[in-house]
Amino acid sequence: MPIKLFFALVMPLMLLLAGCAPLIFTAGAGAGYVATQEEPRSKVGAFFDELGRSIKQTTRKLTGAKPTRKQSAAVNSGGLTLTINNATVAPTKVTIGDQVKLTLQYVVSGAPEKGLKVREKTSLTSSGQELTVLKDETVVKENGTWENTLTFAIPGSAKPGKYTVAQQISAQGKTRSSRRSFTVQ
Predict the structure, then answer these.
(1) What is the pLDDT of residue 2?
(2) pLDDT at 62
């Protein structure tokens, strides 16, 4: 079996098992337009491979957070409130190999006692075009303040320039989003 074919079959399987399915599908879609040219295909593939191997994420419920008056009013009236408290990207100036840390802190209130399905999506764009989806999952969240942290290393194949991270949460037809940028030097 040729080595390229071996990696083409094994890498997607490894990424699926590691929970990186959205990255595989996005990488495949982004690489499709250069499939006829060997050099650009290998550069695009290298970017996604390096990025995919470095992604790490955590989610935790913060304790002791009290809802605001507006959130309490929504709970009392039976409505859902979905609010982004804080979204950060650090550092804002990086070089190849540096770690970028994304943090999204949001509040869910007015959810049913058993929880609510919340879609969390994080995308990376450059020059107005989506490069990849770093995270796209739907999870059940109960009322409270939640914090997601996602880190990744800047791949060796990344080009210098401005990159934007779009972080989005949505539930029951409500969507909240945040955009933060960093520069690769």
Answers:
(1) 55
(2) 77
Burial, 104: exposed, middle or buried (Cβ in 10 Å; 0-12, 13-18, 19+)? Answer: buried
Q: CA–CA separation, 74 vs 109, rounded Å?
A: 8
Between the alpha carbon of residue 97 and those of residues 51, 55, 100, 153, the distances in Å are 10, 13, 9, 6
- Give the per-residue pLDDT at 47: 66
Task: Show Cβ contacts of residue 57 under 8 Å, excluding neighbours closer than 6 positions.
Answer: 135, 148, 149, 150, 151
Q: Give residue for tokens 């540096």.
A: 98
Report whether 148 contacts 62 (CB < 8 A).
Answer: no
Q: Which pTM was predicted?
A: 0.65
- 18-31 pLDDT, tens digit per residue, is 444 443 333 443 44
- Share the mean pLDDT of the chain: 77
With the CA atoms of 102, 108, 112 and 114 taken in that order, what torsion angle do they form, in degrees rounded to the nearest 10?
Answer: 30
Which DSSP string do the residues of 100-148 spell out, in sequence order? EEEEEEEEEES--TT-EEEEEEEEEEETTEEEEEEEEEEEEE-SEEEEE
In whole angstroms, give the CA distance from residue 172 to residue 86: 21
Calculated CA dihedral for residues 98, 139, 30, 90, nearest 10 degrees: -20
Q: SS3 for 74?
A: helix
